[in-house]
Specification:
This protein is of the alpha/beta class and 206 residues long. The protein has helices spanning 5-16, 26-38, 53-60, 75-87, 101-111, 128-137, 164-178, and strands at 43-47, 67-72, 94-98, 118-121, 144-148, 182-191, 194-203.
């Protein structure tokens, strides 16, 4: 990936402020942008903002009248993300909601937000099954649902794992496999972020 001032500054600010290095890698960010563009997404929901790095990638894929809502539980993360998003010139496109996603998702539904064209899940992994359930509620036929970190260095094959993140992803994968309203696959990735993967699903029925 060539240098990008806004994206590079977002990574630098996140690292300087001590945010965990959980952002997607540059090539994964580009993949998110391409998927959103291919899907011609006009409305995007992101569950898990962190420093706003993936938010910037996704928001850049939107048309001029597009919108992106991103959910972040940590006030410090949200503050840094807002600054990064504003620096990228996307403050008018992105609506960052502060609070636990399992609290803000019902609020979005109550406000009549959605259905979204694309939903990206990249927050605390133990809650992935609940996030998937909400993603379905806030989707329509044709909505693209993407979830990060579904391979976890291969740890997801261990049914006896005591890691709550592994168990959350395992349950998410199981639900994805049996959900009749979606068609899904998982793409394994190896790169600067190690060995992991994306789950990609399209909603095929309301």
């Amino acid at each position: 990936m060539p240098p990008d001032p806004a994206l590079d500054a977002a990574l630098e600010a996140s690292a300087t402020e001590g945010l965990p290095p959980h952002n997607v890698s540059p090539n994964q960010g580009k993949l998110l942008l391409l998927l959103a563009q291919i899907h011609r997404a006009n409305s995007i929901l992101e569950i898990g903002t962190l420093g706003g790095y993936s938010t910037i990638w996704l928001a850049r894929a939107l048309p001029t009248d597009g919108r992106l809502i991103t959910l972040e539980a940590d006030p410090k993360h949200a503050e840094i993300a807002r600054a990064n998003i504003a620096r990228a010139g996307l403050a008018k496109v992105v609506d960052l909601r502060l609070g636990r996603a399992l609290d803000t998702l019902p609020q979005l539904a109550a406000e009549g937000c959605g259905p979204f064209d694309l939903i990206f899940i990249d927050a605390d992994k133990p809650s992935n099954p609940d996030y998937f359930a909400w993603a379905l509620k806030l989707s329509r036929r044709g909505t693209l649902i993407i979830a990060d970190n579904v391979v976890r260095n291969g740890a997801v094959i261990d049914a006896a794992s005591s890691d709550l993140s592994v168990q959350g992803v395992r349950r998410f994968n199981e639900l994805l496999a049996i959900e009749p309203r979606v068609s899904a696959t998982a793409i394994q990735t190896v790169g600067s972020k190690g060995y992991d993967g994306f789950a990609i699903a399209i909603v095929t029925a309301d």
